[in-house]
Write a structure and sequence with these properties.
Strand order of the largest sheet: 1-2-3-4
Number of helices: 3
Order of helices and strands: HEEEHHE
Shape: globular
Distance between the termini: 13 Å
Radius of gyration: 14 Å
Number of strands: 4
Length: 108
Amino acid sequence: GEERSRLLAPHLAKALVHETGGHIDGFFLPELGSGLVMALNPATGRSLLGLLVRREAKIVLPESNQASREFLAAQGYHETKNAWRMVRGPRLDWRPDCLHARIGGNFG
């Protein structure tokens, strides 16, 4: 729900996009921060997250994304820290179930 095109656009050339039935249902931006994984469903999220676990020892995602938490636990990951998501201003269209690996806290 946020306007982030200026942040995302420089990384589109190396983006990996997942398509199901002629519709994009997820993407992985491997060179943006720690690697951003967004997907509309858990199966696509696991598929793209599988690419990230090959190279990242630390992956951050929302606590409420249970499907990806279970996938990472099966890969040998375990929770080491947690943090609050801070919001200023009007509420955004926040879909934590679609965020399977965040960029990094420095981008908000």
